[in-house]
Amino acid sequence: MIFENSLQFAKNQDQNDPLYKYRDQFHIPQHEGKDCIYFTGNSLGLQPKSTRKYIEEELTDWENLGVEGHFHAEHRPWFHYHKFLKEALAGIVGAKPEEVVSMNNLTSNLHLMMVSFYQPTKTRFKILMEAGAFPSDQYAVESQLRFHGFDPATSVIEIAPRNGEHNIRTEDIITKIEQEGDSIALILFGGVQYYTGQYFDLKSITKAGHNAGARVGFDLAHAVGNVPLNLHDSGADFAVWCSYKYLNSGPGGVSGIFVHERHANNPELPRFAGWWGHSEEERFKMQKGFIPMAGADGWQLSNVNVLSSAAHLAALEIFKEVGMNPLRAKSELLTGYLEFLLNSMDNKLVQIITPTNPKDRGCQLAIVVREKGREIFDALTQKGVVADWREPEVIRVAPVPLYNTFEDVFNFYTIFKKALDS
């Protein structure tokens, strides 16, 4: 598409956008009586208008039925609640329904996955990850290493961008895996790097890791609902994600996991077991001896958080209706238009450090402002832009295709340019 630097062009794109109607299905925060420019769905997605209805249905069943809601709820029996989310989740992450389940929170799930898939030996014990990974991942990895008696200072292999670059080259990741292969027990990468917005090549990383004899997993917090993932075909052993960013399922919303089907019926695989991962047919016999359910369901611990899952379901129903392919197509255009407008300023103090190739990024752009970056960010906030500041020097902006518009993008550009000029 040939972009134009004009408000009329942006309005024309919105008029021809088949997804534009979905904006009306979300609550848009207000600023001085108008819709704000909400570009921080990469931190907390907006609330679908249907969320209240879904939660109130569960509250009504609780009110009227009490404990009987587990099996006789009018809308969705709580005992099987996780099953109502599977089809939509599988479509979003490119998996089979039995390979995914919603449960717990992200870092809890990451620890559970490492219990199963990080099995170090005296010679193969290192964990390879991207340098500058989200702190929660770093803390989880450090604590897992110490739990197994290893020193994180010598047991973590970090892959960083080359000098003068901001993004990690896939060939450098693969080369490092090949060089260190005999010592690597686990490869753990973010799907999309939270700071730069780089979308990693999951399939190539997985193939290289498996060739080296390592297990491979991904933290998809900034990738799920944002980019196409194709987890089953990529062959990753596991993945974890949260639901409160691009999946719009509420602050601290229920997380989810993917476990590849080749591990689905392996009861010998180490895991921390819980009641809800035990065979449904045997669960209420209340007997000793854990019998895991097939697939990802066998990693569940406790019964479903129904109210949080209701909010999750409300959002997933929208994703199921829209589909990831149309979302991705609009996302590439929307983010591409933002990139075009920012580059048109030709301002030496402004640099986009997110990859320029749309295939290597999601909807987030990470913008470095070399002078007074925090003051610029504060000026944006005062004008009704909800963006995200990340130390030491990045303004993260994420035009989300479900509810953001081309006019949002143009208005952001206008406000940003005025803030720089002033």
3D architecture notes:
The protein has 422 residues and is an alpha/beta fold. It has two domains: 7-47 and 323-421, Aspartate Aminotransferase, domain 1 (Alpha-Beta Complex), CATH 3.90.1150.10; 55-321, 3-Layer(aba) Sandwich (Aspartate Aminotransferase, domain 2). 36% of the residues lie in helices and 13% in strands. The protein contains 14 helices and 15 strands. The protein has helices spanning 7-15, 51-65, 69-72, 86-93, 106-117, 135-147, 152-155, 170-180, 202-211, 231-234, 306-322, 324-344, 373-382, 406-421; strands spanning 30-31, 34-35, 37-38, 100-102, 126-130, 156-159, 184-190, 215-219, 238-241, 256-259, 350-352, 365-369, 385-386, 388-390, 394-397. The strands form four sheets. It has a seven-stranded mixed sheet, with helices on both faces. Strands 11-12-15-14 form a four-stranded antiparallel sheet. Helix 5 (106-117) packs parallel to helix 6 (135-147). The longest helix is centred in the C-terminal third of the chain and has 21 residues, at 324-344. The mean pLDDT is 96.
